[in-house]
């Protein structure tokens, strides 16, 4: 191993939040602060926009005890953005500006924490710096509750959302089975293109407190079949619980949530209440049953009080591994996980080529979806269960979470 | 104290579930099982309907270790009902049947766990048994997340819902402040007639992570003022978060959630997505901002994983006190709490006259609502904060809650 580059680092967060994105942040920041080669640790305020606008937060100025609270503070503590960087061959304005900032602060390490788009950003910056001959290590740190990054066994953030979804569904199951008068419950989970999160509802069936049916966006949604499924189960049990992905779509590709007309709504305007409310209305008209639609909404991606301890540890490890890899001379890579489950769960970090990760969506394997397209198989449960083990070390004050409060000193 | 009556007891659960109603159940069941005077402990399956239909569960047959899990199992483990018993002077059919069942099983103690309607049921049964000269002790055990029972300082179930609401709002606050592009968030809490639960959102402001405004149903809702509040705060901070009660209503008494026409919906039909979705649409049209409506729905009343330790202990204590009071010869009473907060929080159980409790709704004091009618005062926070202290002793298996699974042996 060569002597590592000496210089500053920038860490940024991008895309939608998760319960554990700050655990990754802490992995990067703490490891960078501890390194003798990294001279200064900057946090980009609102991701790459913070770099472009020269809004860098000095992590060295923060209280180490406060930084530790990042382990259980949800959402992006440094602020996030959804800024899609241009193709440098078309417009290299942003890249010139990033280079200017890197030179101004002597930045030799850049760590970016996000999903597909963020890995694309990472990849482009890395390639540009190599092209112009600026010596800099660029490593991506994965984050997405959607669990759709290519290569890695799973993505930091997914497991905590999965644990929250399964826990909440078990609790709602109890609530929905309390009367003997019959009830249908439709629970909407996130996942526009991938069904991982909705599939996590199946974990609740380990104790028999989960959904009767699970509908994911990897296969086409058939409203008639859905209504037949639900009606039959309701007639049999006087109860039916369903988990649906926000991204379920008809065979023509149109989202069910955007259906402009339906049995109950012929006014030709979009319904406001989202998919769960729409399906609840359709089912109510069909069955006459008491029907409740529940949208887990933002709660599923920020419920840090119910985060997976395993997810927190692995998120931290991925941030730490990113810094260690960069110090070892690696660049243009994303940290991911390689796991085995045969003799107990074992997880290790591994580097993946950014160019292979960027902009490719990893979906739920079709063979993990049942033949009737209304459930997921035991293979998924075996895959997912180890990820949700363990609890958060969250500290509470006044009976409520005591999240990290950064001083946010600008450079 | 006279020698207690010897005989069986029936315990029943009624009305909407809560996270801790089973902690009260455990208080009753364990104390009754331990009593030398109570010969048999029956659980009514689906409340008073279980008594009327002779569906009684034998609690003596359950594994004591399993029963202990009731402390952290949400919803009504014995099943609930929403059965309004008739006035005995008009129709005494139900009462004759209840007497028949009491005689069949030699029932000398009846404990009923619920809200206003359930206390009314208790009161009527108690009066009827006295009238016909059947020696029986009838004690109500309070339960309602709505916190609207008369006399008692607070109601078992409220604090756990309050803790969940405040926790979730703190987490959503973090999520909604992650971008620098502006956002308005509207969070809908339960409480059709009383604003206690929505007021609990204010607890999140202890750490500055709570709503800008809180709207409760104790005062009339003014849509123009609401839009002015939200717009001004959004223009100032590029962000605004609001907590609203499902029961907010206009000056004419009509619920905002049932408004058939609005700025965005002139089609004259009820919107499906509930109040949060409706207000989000109105605010979006007014401001052009990114707006998200979140309905906490059933989650707030069944999220046992986030229950208040204090609430669990007090719920257990109220069930225990009910049995002890009955053994001591009391009848026609409800157990409630008397609390002091001056030198640290102190809570004791006390008996209240059922006739005074039944069918009276205890609302949020008007002096705890600010003059602008868009927030609650420090007095509410001082009242509520001690109630949400402490965590649940919930045991997990496979990283998920391990709820109580009763054998449910019928008598």
Helicity of chain A, as a percent range: 25-40%
Alpha carbon gap, first and last residue of chain A: 32 Å
Which residue ranges of chain A are poorly predicted, with pLDDT under 50 across at least 5 consecutive positions? Answer: 260-272
Structural class of chain A: alpha/beta
Estimated share of beta-strand residues of chain A: 15-25%
Largest interface: A-B, 71 and 70 residues
Could you tell me the mean pLDDT of chain A?
Answer: 94
What is the quaternary state of this protein? homodimer
Catalytic activity (chains A, B): beta-D-fructose 6-phosphate + diphosphate = beta-D-fructose 1,6-bisphosphate + phosphate + H(+)
Protein name (chains A, B): Pyrophosphate--fructose 6-phosphate 1-phosphotransferase
GO molecular function, one term (chains A, B): metal ion binding
EC number (chains A, B): 2.7.1.90
Short note summarizing the structure:
Chains A, B: It is an enzyme of class 2 (transferase). Chain A is built from 13 helices and 13 strands. With 411 residues, the first copy, chain A, is an alpha/beta fold.
Structure, explained:
The structure is a homodimer of 411-residue chains. With 411 residues, chain A is α/β, with parallel strands linked by helices. The first copy, chain A, has helices spanning 21-34, 47-52, 64-68, 93-104, 116-132, 158-176, 196-199, 223-237, 274-287, 299-302, 309-327, 354-357, 378-384, and strands spanning 7-13, 38-44, 56-58, 107-114, 137-142, 183-189, 213-215, 239-245, 291-295, 333-340, 346-353, 396-397, 400-401. In chain A, a hairpin with a 2-residue loop joins strand 12 (396-397) and strand 13 (400-401). In chain A, helix 1 packs parallel to helix 11. The radius of gyration of chain A is 23 Å and the shape is elongated. Chains A, B: This is Pyrophosphate--fructose 6-phosphate 1-phosphotransferase. Chains A, B: The record marks 117 as: Important for catalytic activity and substrate specificity. Chains A, B: It catalyses: beta-D-fructose 6-phosphate + diphosphate = beta-D-fructose 1,6-bisphosphate + phosphate + H(+).
